[in-house]
TrEMBL record, chain A:
UniProt pathway annotation: Amino-acid biosynthesis; L-histidine biosynthesis; L-histidine from 5-phospho-alpha-D-ribose 1-diphosphate: step 5/9
Catalysed conversion reaction: 5-[(5-phospho-1-deoxy-D-ribulos-1-ylimino)methylamino]-1-(5-phospho-beta-D-ribosyl)imidazole-4-carboxamide + L-glutamine = D-erythro-1-(imidazol-4-yl)glycerol 3-phosphate + 5-amino-1-(5-phospho-beta-D-ribosyl)imidazole-4-carboxamide + L-glutamate + H(+)
Family of the protein in this entry: Belongs to the HisA/HisF family.
Gene it is expressed from: hisF
Any single Gene Ontology cellular-component annotation: cytoplasm
HAMAP family: HisF
Pfam families: His_biosynth
Keyword Amino-acid biosynthesis part of the UniProt annotation: yes
Record's protein name: Imidazole glycerol phosphate synthase subunit HisF
GO BP field: L-histidine biosynthetic process
Lineage: Bacteria, Pseudomonadati, Pseudomonadota, Gammaproteobacteria, Oceanospirillales
InterPro entries hit by this protein: Aldolase_TIM, His_biosynth, HisF, IGPS_HisA/HisF, RibuloseP-bd_barrel
EC main group: lyase
Automatic annotation (TrEMBL), chain B:
Metabolic or biological pathway: Amino-acid biosynthesis; L-histidine biosynthesis; L-histidine from 5-phospho-alpha-D-ribose 1-diphosphate: step 5/9
Any GO CC annotation of this UniProt entry: cytoplasm
PANTHER family noted in UniProt: IMIDAZOLE GLYCEROL PHOSPHATE SYNTHASE SUBUNIT HISH (PTHR42701), IMIDAZOLE GLYCEROL PHOSPHATE SYNTHASE SUBUNIT HISH 1 (PTHR42701:SF2)
Signal peptide from the UniProt entry: none
GO biological process: L-histidine biosynthetic process
GO MF annotations, alphabetized: glutaminase activity; imidazoleglycerol-phosphate synthase activity; lyase activity
Residue positions of the active site: 85, 194, 196
Oligomeric and partner information: Heterodimer of HisH and HisF.
Chief location category: cytoplasm
Official protein name in the record: Imidazole glycerol phosphate synthase subunit HisH
Amino acid sequence: MPLAKRIIPCLDVDRGRVVKGVNFLNIRDAGDPVEVAKRYNEQGADEITMLDITATHEGRGTMIETVRAIAGQVFIPLTVGGGIRTVADIRAMLNAGADKIGINSAAISNPAFVREASERFGAQCIVVAIDAKRVDDHWEIFTHGGRKATGINAVEWAIRMQAYGAGELLLTSMDRDGAKSGFDLALTRAISDAVSIPVIASGGVGTLEHLAEGVNLGHADAVLAASIFHFGEFTIADAKRHMASRNIEMRR
Amino acid sequence: MSKHLLTIIDYGMGNLHSVAKALEHVAPNFQVEITADKARIAAADHVILPGVGAIRDCMAEIRAQGVDTLVRDVLASGTPFLGICVGMQALMHSSDENGGVAGLNTFPGRVHCFPKDALDVHDLPMKVPHMGWNNVYQQAEHPLWQGIESGERFYFVHSYYVEPQPAYTIGTCHYGPEFAAMVGRDNLFATQFHPEKSHTAGLQLLKNFTDWNGRL
């Protein structure tokens, strides 16, 4: 049997609480990160991703404590991102128990940081997060929660980040994020087919069928979602059953 | 009664904290130490050699810090020993990674890169690293398999794999080629997957390791 596709619940964390908004607005509280992570672990999540959405210097200590608490109780891979800018930031998160580190803005302002991080810690722990938006007939990289254009072509950027030593890409459609209308499948497939490293699809999941489409039509290796799981709409096990019914190889 | 001592060899490579946390969880009666201290490692009841990243850098650190000698001493002493991921690959004769790197030659196996031409379910080239949960098929009986079914999924993340040597392969996995997911002989065994990240099955395997006296 082949490698299983992965379901990754995502915890957006703001000052020690899980939150979720629509297009980065209308933030709702979704609980204590440790409790939420434990619940997903028990439901059979394949990994957990935690993003520090405020990523302030003051908030960093709280995030490290949260990572430490989760890593002591949840024994599946844990990715941590948000405000990671230096090798010291990465080391602090790894020492707290993170397995993979998401790098987003710092990769854009200083691509060599991805290479340095990959050489220092290994490609397997460097996840480059790409926030892309459709512009005319292609996709471009945006920063600052989708507000600031960079003019960088998303597919070219993905190929470049692979060359710089990314071990995996976390691809978010800024057009779809929080909209519950499904992944941007054309974007997901364009990037997944262009690189030889795994791609996690993110942004827009509103139904279980959206998850299956991400793999079958978007060619994603993993699918990430937040709100459909946070508020009890579906469990991870529901999602796995549905994806398995669409002939997707899943871990039980 | 003093606690059993389990040392995780710290040679400056990789994330050792996940391994330590998982062991503290399954074996509360063990004192778990991440250390480079030769005396502590020699005094340990159980020893773990982890490793992530590039094998060239790992082997350079292993040799620079005398871990190669330590591993041979632990092996000779009969102390139960576990290698994880690159900590398994380092035990082989040699690796193709980084243009060819000599290993510790504890096992005769060789380490290869996943082929670029293998196709996935979409008829596209298979993604490398091999990242995620894959089935491990038990090829030989071993005390470490206690309570774990053949075909159970474990978490992998690696770009290079160990060619199976039938005499030492106790578990296999397929990703394009079939490769050795777990090897063992005497008091030594090693996994390509990460038991510390493999949920219930991985924790069971680590528990079995702490219960093991190193004899088959």
